[in-house]
Amino acid sequence: MKKPVAIVICCALLATLAFAQPGSKGTTTEQAITVTGTIIKMTTEEGSAGNYQPVKTLVVREDRSNTPGSYVLNGPGHVVNKQGQAIRTAIKPGAHVRIYYAQVGDQRIVDHVVVD
């Protein structure tokens, strides 16, 4: 009779150790951080593509003025049609375009162009 009682007591002790929660070994302190940066405002312009297009630059005759605006195309820009399908060919002169860009310093960096 002593043997089964000893086995039950040992199992009970092992079970409490197996299911015990670990204690807290340290404390965590939250620290606030400050993030600074420049807010880049996206803007749009509409117009028609110009006849002369220098490399990596889109020249657009803006609808609101008679002077052309130029937009820098850094890398393969996203040029799409109204349905959102990518256009891989050159933008034809006179094509109506809507340019989504950010003004960074004195440059207009293009996010994407929608061709009608």
How would a textbook summarize the main sheet? 6 strands, mixed
Would you tell me which CATH topology of the domain at 42-115 applies? OB fold (Dihydrolipoamide Acetyltransferase, E2P)
Strand content: 35-45%
Can you name the CATH architecture of the domain at 42-115? Beta Barrel
- Tally of extended strands? 6
Distance between the termini: 93 Å
Give me the number of helical elements: 1
| Category from helices, strands and their pairing | alpha+beta
* Helix percentage range: 10-25%
Q: What name goes with the CATH superfamily of the domain at 42-115?
A: Copper binding periplasmic protein CusF
Report strand order across the widest sheet: 3-2-1-5-6-4
Radius of gyration: 33 Å
Overview of the molecule:
With 116 residues, the chain is of the alpha+beta class. The chain has a domain at 42-115: Beta Barrel (OB fold (Dihydrolipoamide Acetyltransferase, E2P)). It has one helix and six strands. It has one helix at residues 2-18, and strands at residues 42-49, 57-62, 68-72, 78-81, 96-104, 107-115. It has a six-stranded mixed beta sheet with strand order 3-2-1-5-6-4, with no helix packed on it. The longest helix is centred in the first third of the chain and has 17 residues, at 2-18.
In short:
By secondary structure, the protein is of the alpha+beta class.
Topology:
Blueprint: H1 2-18, E1 42-49, E2 57-62, E3 68-72, E4 78-81, E5 96-104, E6 107-115
Parallel strand pairs: 4-6
Antiparallel strand pairs: 1-2, 1-5, 2-3, 5-6
